[in-house]
Give the backbone structure.
Amino acid sequence: MSTPEESVSAWLTGLRQQPGSVNALCSAERALAVVVEDGLEKSLGEALDKWVDQTDVDWIEQVSGEAEEHRQRLGLERNYPQLVRLYGRTTTVLPCTAIQVRVGGVPGPVETTMLWSERGQANSDPVALAISLAEFYPTIDVVPGDRPEVFHPGPLDRYHPERFATFHPGVRSMYSAARADGGRMAKGEFLQEELQRLQRTIIEDMNPLVMELPHDRMADMPRLGSAPAGQAGSLGAHLLMWVAAGRQIYDLPPELVQRFRQTDVDDVPLSLLKYPYDSMYLYWGPQPDLELEPGWLVDGAYVQSGVEGVLQMLVTAAPTDPSESAWWPVKGEPYYFQGFERDTLGMDVGTAVDTVLASELADLRQRAAAKGMDVDTLIHDAVASGDIDPTQVPLHVEDVSSRTAGQEIERLTRRHATYVAALKLVINGLCYLTAYPDDSAPEYPAGAPEHLIKATSSTDFKTAKSARGRLAELGYLPVHLCGRELMSQPHPNGGDHHVRAHWRRGHWRRQPYGEGRALRKLIWVMPMVVGATAEGEPLGHLYLVS
């Protein structure tokens, strides 16, 4: 006769072969006695405990209670059903890979439940845990395998355009339209229906994602309303402009960025800048001392110059915790936008930045001081005139535009130094591309399949096109790698004779050239690490010339 442990183990093995809803499996709890001889029920119960960790049971009980308390605090009359979902490799004895407590619906082909809380690294066998919980939780779901990933990161997600598309997958459906519009979107010319489609796509991406974010973490988060969707819409528009211009990325290496941080650009006229594409993305990587919002570091910028007389820069940020990107429907995604128009494009960088910022602050102060609209009265009048169905009227609507403007003033003031430093990184990058347009070359990043890269150079058009398409499907784009000439030049550092090293700041010189030396081009007088030598002589500058 088999022992209780052997009987339970064999019984669980049989249950593992039954995929689908665990409700059927849980009914076996009431039939434990039939798998072995009479009189062993208690022993079997104890044997089942071998596969169940009490800490998992306690956690489920705790968070289920918290979900119910939250429902009561909100005053929800409906008693939303709770679902316990267990993920695990059910074909062998291994612990659950994830345990979820969900509320609001029932499992099925279309997810109708909302994630309340989740626990990873559990210790219980999923089938045994489900059976032990069956008496207390009417709906339990065992899903064979690991918890599916909500997102599938790509190999180039360090670049904002690719990262944004990963967390807003629906936006990719608009890529073909952006590429086929003859460059209209690259110039910022969107049709009304295109903007509406973009916003619908953002909302369609948002709704299922919200269902998969742990709502127990949301309880204490500020309610931002439609702001995250609006932010995503703005970022999405810049992304489509970038797609329409050919998906151009310029990667600036750390050595180059380090020197940009030590190079002054205030005196550079904006009118001297040249742009290789109507829209492009400059990437310099997360800067530890440039934080747009807590946990979000400045890492690059979209530059749009397709509209005559307008220069737009949108500075992006990367989260220090990559999982934070998934929270965009609740927290939003920070960015900084700055536009220069005809009245400022003739100025030098320092004056233009100060002028635009001062104008923006003045506008915000005016909006903050303005009295908000009495929306309730407007709605009441509309109901009285029959323009609005009274059954569709909210109890109260408040105009928060003045409050929002005040918050924006506080944010602009608080982050002013970060914004200016980020914009100057953008300008330095543009100066570099203007002065040294040949010092970059498009390459497929490391990790891209070599045979496909080789095929992109095929003299057969179809072969090359197919290879480029396959690389794009795998998430690889050619990226302009900058700074080749910089990396090849010697950088004197004073050897072992430094007494006190420091940076000597660089700048961009307007070099006369052409007939009568009437034209001007930019020459970079690079910053250098210098210090006193044994003879007290400082080290010289390095000039990088085109």
User: Anything to note?
Assistant: The first helix runs from residue 4 to 16. The longest strand covers residues 296-304. The mean pLDDT is 81.
